[in-house]
Amino acid sequence: MKTRLSLLFIPILFLVTACTKSTVNPNQTILTTISSSKWSTVDGGKTYAAFISTPEIDSYTNAYDAVLVYASFDAGKNYEQVPEVYNGIAYSFTHKIGQVEIDAQSSTGANTIPSPGTVDIKIVLVRSAL
Asked: Which of 11, 91, 127, 128 lies in disulfide reach of 25, CB 3.0 to 4.6 Å?
């Protein structure tokens, strides 16, 4: 009799524990392309920078949310998370309200590099639950 009662309560236990309330914070993805003409340098080719207007990054997002950046060097077939070294070029990024800056420089930091070509960029804004 006890075994039958135990078998009866096991499914109820699973139902009760499976019904927990959870909250999902939606992420936002921004896809853009940096054309080869958008890269600029101020140090003779040691560092190149490209600026992406990102009005989605407001003061709240800048202060509390996560900003993730991915780069594709093969027309969006594969994305690699930045910071990343690709073909001897180190890519990094910074963000502020309304803008993401992508920087490219030699992975050794000492050599000049050719201007980066066209790079597809994926920016993911991850909402923080405070």
From this structure: 127
At 26, is the pLDDT very low, low, confident or very high (cuts 50, 70, 90)? confident
User: What strand order describes the sheet that includes 80-81?
Assistant: 27-34, 119-126, 66-72, 80-81
Kindly list the distances between the CA atom of residue 93 and the CA atoms of 7, 82, 117, in Å, as whole numbers in the listed order.
57, 7, 17
Q: Which residues pair with 95 in a beta bridge?
A: 100
Two structure tokens written together for 53: 């207007």
Could you tell me the pLDDT band of residue 119, with boundaries at 50, 70 and 90? very high
Query: Could you write out the three-class secondary structure of 49-98?
Result: EEEEEECCCCHHHHHHCEEEEEEECCCCCCCEECCEEECCEEEEEEEECE
In order of 5, 13, 14, the CA distances from 1 in angstroms are 6, 19, 21
Strand order in the sheet with 98-106: 47-54, 98-106, 89-96, 84-86
Q: How open is the CA angle 80-85-89, to the nearest 5 degrees? A: 125
